Amino acid sequence: MAVWNLGSINEDIVYSVPHIPAAGETLAATQMRHYLGGKGANMSVALARAGAEVRHIGAIGQSSDWIVDRLSGAGVDTRHIARLPFATGHAIIVVDDAGENAITLFPGANAEIPVETVQGALSEAKTGDWFLAQNETVLQEESATLAKDLGLRVAYAAAPFSAGAARAMVPMTDLLVLNAVEAAQLEEASGQGIADLPVADVIVTRGAEGCDWVTAEGTRHFEALKVEPVDTTGAGDTFTGYLLAGLDRGASMEEAIELAQRAAALMVTRHGTSDVIPDIAEVQAFRP
């Protein structure tokens, strides 16, 4: 099967700092690095490196061919990435000595994806494929509706959190992935507990504390692998990509979660975003 990912594509500029700057503080960075990023691009790379067939749906500026080259080189199908007369999305990321980060995001072309691009892509999809979306692009609700009508399963990573987007997407979602903060925000916005949502499978990630798998039958907790993190940027996206890749090839939820946790644990030991997402051989060989 295939995964059709309506996802953001960003240029990431990452600064290493002694600590996350406070309001009004000027802080000298000790290092600067430039990467391909965006939650959507990260997830597509993770999916491809986990062995999934992934088709990326998105948009970039007209002078960002290097991005398409990087995605293609990772094994992502890029035929449905539109080139638009807008700036490519970008993120300014600061990472402190403990590996925590703060991010300022400019949507750029991610906010201008034409509906025709989505329609053209999904016209090639097959019943049983997965459709994946996050909250860094436009057209999530319209695209998910079309995907459901075509018989696709819908996965939704509710980040960055938007109450309006979540309310629109949850009723169409088969697999919901969000972190603990986003889960609390969703509960407040919906007036429902996570277990009461009309979603078959919900995964709540909790960083170093692992994750919860929530269904109508109850909640199962999975402990995280213990590692020394150097950069948490992209770890959640890596987890989501590996989780969905596992499910797409028929793994059980338990197997998919365990693989995704191993991939995320390895990811936080590396500096960078999509460029350093591990491949399946590295993940399977990883022994923290």
UniProtKB/TrEMBL annotation:
<keyword id="KW-0119">Carbohydrate metabolism</keyword>
<keyword id="KW-0963">Cytoplasm</keyword>
<keyword id="KW-0460">Magnesium</keyword>
<dbReference type="GO" id="GO:0019303">
    <property type="term" value="P:D-ribose catabolic process"/>
</dbReference>
<keyword id="KW-0808">Transferase</keyword>
<feature type="binding site">
    <location>
        <position position="231"/>
    </location>
    <ligand>
        <name>K(+)</name>
    </ligand>
</feature>
<dbReference type="GO" id="GO:0046872">
    <property type="term" value="F:metal ion binding"/>
</dbReference>
<dbReference type="Pfam" id="PF00294">
    <property type="entry name" value="PfkB"/>
</dbReference>
<comment type="pathway">
    <text>Carbohydrate metabolism; D-ribose degradation; D-ribose 5-phosphate from beta-D-ribopyranose: step 2/2.</text>
</comment>
<keyword id="KW-0418">Kinase</keyword>
<dbReference type="GO" id="GO:0005737">
    <property type="term" value="C:cytoplasm"/>
</dbReference>
<feature type="binding site">
    <location>
        <position position="267"/>
    </location>
    <ligand>
        <name>K(+)</name>
    </ligand>
</feature>
<feature type="domain" description="Carbohydrate kinase PfkB">
    <location>
        <begin position="6"/>
        <end position="278"/>
    </location>
</feature>
<dbReference type="InterPro" id="IPR002139">
    <property type="entry name" value="Ribo/fructo_kinase"/>
</dbReference>
<feature type="binding site">
    <location>
        <position position="136"/>
    </location>
    <ligand>
        <name>substrate</name>
    </ligand>
</feature>
<feature type="active site" description="Proton acceptor">
    <location>
        <position position="237"/>
    </location>
</feature>
<comment type="similarity">
    <text>Belongs to the carbohydrate kinase PfkB family. Ribokinase subfamily.</text>
</comment>
<keyword id="KW-0067">ATP-binding</keyword>
<comment type="function">
    <text>Catalyzes the phosphorylation of ribose at O-5 in a reaction requiring ATP and magnesium. The resulting D-ribose-5-phosphate can then be used either for sythesis of nucleotides, histidine, and tryptophan, or as a component of the pentose phosphate pathway.</text>
</comment>
<feature type="binding site">
    <location>
        <begin position="236"/>
        <end position="237"/>
    </location>
    <ligand>
        <name>ATP</name>
    </ligand>
</feature>
<dbReference type="GO" id="GO:0004747">
    <property type="term" value="F:ribokinase activity"/>
</dbReference>
<dbReference type="InterPro" id="IPR011877">
    <property type="entry name" value="Ribokinase"/>
</dbReference>
<keyword id="KW-0479">Metal-binding</keyword>
<feature type="binding site">
    <location>
        <position position="179"/>
    </location>
    <ligand>
        <name>ATP</name>
    </ligand>
</feature>
<feature type="binding site">
    <location>
        <begin position="205"/>
        <end position="210"/>
    </location>
    <ligand>
        <name>ATP</name>
    </ligand>
</feature>
<keyword id="KW-0547">Nucleotide-binding</keyword>
<dbReference type="InterPro" id="IPR011611">
    <property type="entry name" value="PfkB_dom"/>
</dbReference>
<comment type="subunit">
    <text>Homodimer.</text>
</comment>
<protein>
    <recommendedName>
        <fullName>Ribokinase</fullName>
        <ecNumber>2.7.1.15</ecNumber>
    </recommendedName>
</protein>
<keyword id="KW-0630">Potassium</keyword>
<feature type="binding site">
    <location>
        <position position="270"/>
    </location>
    <ligand>
        <name>K(+)</name>
    </ligand>
</feature>
<feature type="binding site">
    <location>
        <position position="233"/>
    </location>
    <ligand>
        <name>K(+)</name>
    </ligand>
</feature>
<feature type="binding site">
    <location>
        <position position="237"/>
    </location>
    <ligand>
        <name>substrate</name>
    </ligand>
</feature>
<dbReference type="GO" id="GO:0005524">
    <property type="term" value="F:ATP binding"/>
</dbReference>
<feature type="binding site">
    <location>
        <begin position="10"/>
        <end position="12"/>
    </location>
    <ligand>
        <name>substrate</name>
    </ligand>
</feature>
<dbReference type="InterPro" id="IPR029056">
    <property type="entry name" value="Ribokinase-like"/>
</dbReference>
<feature type="binding site">
    <location>
        <begin position="38"/>
        <end position="42"/>
    </location>
    <ligand>
        <name>substrate</name>
    </ligand>
</feature>
<feature type="binding site">
    <location>
        <position position="272"/>
    </location>
    <ligand>
        <name>K(+)</name>
    </ligand>
</feature>
